[in-house]
Specification:
Shape: globular
Distance between the termini: 41 Å
Mean pLDDT: 92
Number of strands: 21
Strand order of the largest sheet: 7-8-9-3-10-11
GO molecular function, one term: ATP binding
Largest sheet: 6 strands, mixed
Helix content: 10-25%
Radius of gyration: 25 Å
Pfam families: ABC_tran
Order of helices and strands: EEEHEEEEHHHEHEHEEHHEEEEEEEEEE
Structural class: alpha+beta
Protein name: ABC transporter ATP-binding protein
Keywords: ATP-binding, Cell membrane, Ion transport, Iron, Iron transport, Membrane, Nucleotide-binding, Transport
InterPro entries: AAA+_ATPase, ABC_SmlMolc_Importer, ABC_transporter-like_ATP-bd, ABC_transporter-like_CS, ABC_transpr_FbpC, Mo/tungstate-bd_C_term_dom, P-loop_NTPase
Length: 343
């Protein structure tokens, strides 16, 4: 079942379109990441979902409730949506418990206290209710912000760059904790980030933005391994482009030899194209008689980044152990080939 439906949404700012005819759906208990560079429109879409900026056209539905559409604009506080910000947005003069219970005004004291305690338990902050935000670490402050959003039992959570102010050492742990928390509570989420590493770890699907439009939507692994265009390919990681000619329905000839796919590629015999290969797909073997010459090698801890020259091309590979010889041979394991027309 669909939790959120965005249909043909456009938003304008200073007389120009920031979003243009954009459509996207989020299933119940699904986490979708809006990924892209600064200024591409992802935060604008988040604010439109929250009701913080108006739509020029289109509509937004949460389940079967129309939040925005022709003649309809529901107030932000009535949407049943929780929001978590980059800077936590906690009240410094209120305790942790008071921050979490801020949205529960009007409820009885006992009901409010029990709800706050339950939220503290959910985010593993038991016993910290009487502290103030400045007495907590960045990760703990973000947990308070999450507890405050969860205490009102939203159907959808919006997260705007929520991990960017967290120390690198604890960021991945917090990402996994929050993902498990949202999944455990059955809450759908829309998450904004410019970091592909955060997106891969946190999201079920990615929507990659460019200039107010979505270039491709899908599971992180599919976008990484089977990008639909060069922008998607290059945004999500390192790439090599090799001139290639189709020799049969499975294979291509290139400067590093014949490369066979794991499925038919659907291009005509003799077609001249460009083959995209990720650095991890180049399997190297040191060989002094090999056709590739080592240009540069960097040890990066969990892998080595290697640059090699071949017939005027510079190729990049990612390998687990450094090359000990100055020349190498390369193999490419069969995989679904990603082909683009020549520039």
């Amino acid at each position: 079942m669909s939790c959120l439906e965005i249909e043909g949404v456009s938003c304008r700012y200073n007389g120009r379109n920031v979003l243009e005819q954009l459509s996207l759906s989020v299933a119940d208990n699904e986490i979708v990441c809006l990924l892209g560079a600064s200024g591409c429109g992802k935060t604008t879409l988040l604010k439109a979902i929250a009701g913080l900026i108006p739509l020029a056209e289109g509509r937004i539905l949460l389940g079967d409730r129309l939040l925005d559409g022709p003649g309809v604009t529901m107030a932000p506080e009535d949407r049943g949506i929780g929001m978590i910000f980059q800077d936590y947005a906690l009240f410094p003069h209120l305790t942790v418990a008071e921050n979490i219970g801020f949205g529960l005004e009007g409820r009885g004291r006992r009901e409010r206290r029990e709800a706050v305690e339950a939220s503290l338990n959910l985010v593993n902050l038991q016993g910290l209710g009487e502290r103030y935000p400045h007495q907590l670490s960045g990760g703990q402050q973000q947990r308070v912000a999450i507890a405050r959003a969860l205490v009102c039992k939203p159907r959808l959570m919006l997260l705007d760059e929520p991990f960017s102010n967290i120390d690198t050492q604890v960021r991945m742990k917090l990402i996994l904790e929050i993902r498990a928390l949202l999944k455990g509570q059955g809450i759908g989420a829309v998450f904004v980030s410019h970091s592909k590493e955060e997106a891969f770890a946190f999201a079920d699907r990615l929507a990659l933005f460019r200039a107010g439009q979505i270039e491709q939507v899908g599971e992180p692994e599919r976008l990484y391994r089977r990008p639909e265009n060069r922008f998607v390919a290059e945004f999500l990681g390192g790439v090599n482009y090799l001139d290639a000619e189709v020799v049969d329905e499975w294979s291509l000839t290139t400067a590093i030899g014949t490369i066979r796919g794991s499925e038919p590629h659907g291009r005509p015999l003799g077609a001249r194209l460009q083959l995209m290969l990720r650095p991890q797909q180049l399997q190297l073997r040191g060989d002094e008689a090999g056709p590739l010459t080592l240009v540069e090698q960097q040890f990066l801890g969990h892998h080595c980044r290697v640059q090699l020259a071949c017939d005027g091309l510079i190729l990049e590979a990612s390998i687990s152990e450094p090359l000990t010889l100055g020349r190498a041979r390369v193999q490419v394991a069969p995989h679904p080939l990603v082909l683009f027309d020549p520039l």
